[in-house]
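Help! Submission page says 'invalid entity' but I think these are all valid:
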Amino acid sequence: MARQLSRWAICCLRVAAPGLGWGRGRGCEFSCASFGRIMRPDDANIAGNVHGGTILKMIEEAGAIISTRHCNSQAGEPCVAALARVERTDFLSPMCIGEVANVSAEITYTSRHSVEVQVNVMSENILTGAKKVTNKATLWYVPLSLKNVNKVLEVPPIQYARKEQEDEGKKRYEEQKLDRLETKQRNGDVILPVINPEPHTVGYSQSSLIHLVGPSDCTLLGFVHGGVTMKLMDEVAGIVAARHCKTNIVTASVDAINFHEKIKKGCVITVSGRMTFTSNKSMEIEVFVDADPFVDEPRERYRAVSAFFTYVSLSKEGKPLPVPQLLTETEDEKRRFEEGKGRYLQTKAKRQAQLQQSAQQ
Amino acid sequence: MARQLSRWAICCLRVAAPGLGWGRGRGCEFSCASFGRIMRPDDANIAGNVHGGTILKMIEEAGAIISTRHCNSQAGEPCVAALARVERTDFLSPMCIGEVANVSAEITYTSRHSVEVQVNVMSENILTGAKKVTNKATLWYVPLSLKNVNKVLEVPPIQYARKEQEDEGKKRYEEQKLDRLETKQRNGDVILPVINPEPHTVGYSQSSLIHLVGPSDCTLLGFVHGGVTMKLMDEVAGIVAARHCKTNIVTASVDAINFHEKIKKGCVITVSGRMTFTSNKSMEIEVFVDADPFVDEPRERYRAVSAFFTYVSLSKEGKPLPVPQLLTETEDEKRRFEEGKGRYLQTKAKRQAQLQQSAQQ
Amino acid sequence: MARQLSRWAICCLRVAAPGLGWGRGRGCEFSCASFGRIMRPDDANIAGNVHGGTILKMIEEAGAIISTRHCNSQAGEPCVAALARVERTDFLSPMCIGEVANVSAEITYTSRHSVEVQVNVMSENILTGAKKVTNKATLWYVPLSLKNVNKVLEVPPIQYARKEQEDEGKKRYEEQKLDRLETKQRNGDVILPVINPEPHTVGYSQSSLIHLVGPSDCTLLGFVHGGVTMKLMDEVAGIVAARHCKTNIVTASVDAINFHEKIKKGCVITVSGRMTFTSNKSMEIEVFVDADPFVDEPRERYRAVSAFFTYVSLSKEGKPLPVPQLLTETEDEKRRFEEGKGRYLQTKAKRQAQLQQSAQQ
């Protein structure tokens, strides 16, 4: 027994090389975690590519574990960490059936009421040993009291190895706070049905699904895991993309998502998606999640989340294919297309700036 | 068929053409729903054909959502709609992995205490855009109080566009009521084990499974979803059929199923099936569901549901194959074979009458 | 990017404290892995206790990942590690919904053609921080060629920190080899049906289920994961135990299981269980797994696995309850009861010897 326990401890322990400033005693146990799972056929599309939604769900589960663990690490009111926001996440390389998804999470910043978690995902081909970084995601969690779900508790502060780490974290914290306030305003839009739509119009590919929230979708507080919501969103976005270009499609990225409203067990959620923009080789899809607490609640249907997903179309050899241009018809569609173009160009510019920066170093 | 398809089109679009009387403000939101889901490998057999049970489960989920929503649409005691009956359902064309199942549901009649829902399922190949009607199902739900599961509540009446719609609905209501009373009587039969059975006898292919009812199988009231039960029934029926003919088999139809008895979370259910009849190219399988509330309940094991499933055997090219004739040994088996033949001939006659009627129009 | 990658590396790396002998360069990456997952309602019974089968499945997945990774760590024919044997496994403490299961795996011995993996499971209450060891399991894997599933490949040898580790491993290897040969012989038994059994007899609680093997149940070779089989076995054993004592029951231990025969995708498997022995507070259930490759295969139904599960009955406060004695009727039942008693007394004696040994140290 003693032998076994010490082995466990070692395995879990992330010992820090001096100068990097990790861990020190309780470090690993509380602020770092790693997980793995073999990808199964149900996790993937018919071409064998793992759904972006499956990966987002794993990322969020890792974040929820590590932040709930951290927020309960000091004596006090027990709490569950609820997902408040996911930063823009890129899918850097595809993952396939039979590969192992290695997910590692780490707490990188704490404000008074929120926790920033960075999660890395690597795909590992256990036959060849090849490993690829597939995602680097940043999530924000807020601790909610187990006894009173409307009460946000205080977060125990983490120790930073260097002062700059804290300063950079604070900057990220302020930025996301601003962005969350903004999105809270533009949430009223709905997706209206279209009769006999022409191919490649918005109405042609728009799609929706409904899901009855069951117990295994929920946290201990009885609210839907953010990861479950993101998986459903990716499913709808994928159907929209496939309907538009009729080829094998994969998730390329997800814009920042803010979770303003919780969704309770027993709700019916409607997830709907429409295409907003196409570049030569990518499609942007806007996804809405509406919750309908139709039993036992006096409350009206409400918008719980919305987000932009970007998809690319792949050839049988896995090369990006040109995408048919989206045909916009109404003024609103044209406006949304221009907005999408703006996001697209902004992202492109940011990426080029990063590349230049790396090249200079 | 034409009438059904136009309803589908309307329902999926959710826009009311004037004079058709759909929608009008809250109309669609409350009495109509549509959604889609990609079929995954686990939804299908090894030949890639989606299990009939997977489709039945989706149909029932859509029905449960729409009828629960409707029954809670007026202020009053909150309730959950429980499945009371599914009318005979044909599987008109196979659905495959990677296709999107589009399910649309609509309330078509309400009595004082029950709701009739019509659900249409279309398979959509999102790569080619091809769409096929796979099912048109009719389900009856009863609203049970959330506080007292034994209390049946009143159903808010729906508005009909034309008087004839109400009259036809009433006729369907009366017919199913009669049928429900009848089946309640012939429910005592059991499937007895057979030792060392010969190939193609009843004993050779009969099968049963047990399932422990978990939280995700259940509604908010803590009782098994009708769709979960039907999925398990189809699973057993499919194994009986495959054991008999040792080829790829698919569900062709399900006879009307009455849900007389609820099944509670934590029960063990035994689902058993035996072949009752074979025609040249089809097999009829009778399936029983028995519930065993063995923990914390004084109640004995009871018969909850029974039904007849019809299967066909398919070649690798998807063509119907001849089926080995069922060898009946006991008097009971011979009687059941004759009864099955009666049902088979009756269905055949009905279908021919419908075809002639369509041809005349 | 570089920063992110080095962080990942550190997180995954298990750095060795000198003298403990772990790791050494490639050590962690190839011979150690750890995973975690939140336990959901679907993983547990209605009393909130996670099913033993859920845990066995996680254990086996960890073992399969680490041994497949190791066997492919040197250039050569790609292979998939298949489960050959699980040593007796005790469930030391219950795990509950909402807790995190932390699973860590390590390769502890390699013979020419097999790999020994030790897997530890801890339950972690992330609200209180409390951690408990729930399982320490030992599994044996054999690498099968991806191109020719009947070809067993050679295993790259691991490095031992101390000579004694290798010697002890070799001893364990020889012991299990002997045991595997023995069980291969006593595999012909079948569970015969009983009509109208009395309470507390063998026939009263015996149960069986059938399962159609789907794609997500299988490895890359198209054969059922050992963990999937064990989960189904635990499900049947649990139903047998609950039928016998009609209370909340939990898995206490599983005897060594040998996987002599592979089970292919598309098979129907029949998992059947019968009670063989009861002590004052425990029940022993024998479980058989038979595979029926009924489509596209000339092969007859065959026995793939068999095992003994031990269950205990718990009160609402989680205390072990007395168990009704098993009523044996036939000579075979009496013989099996005596054999079960032998296993029970042997295990009890071993445990006491271990306790004394620990006390002396």
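Support: the input was valid. A stray whitespace character was the problem, and the output above is from the cleaned input. The CA atoms of residues 282 and 312 of chain C lie 5 Å apart.
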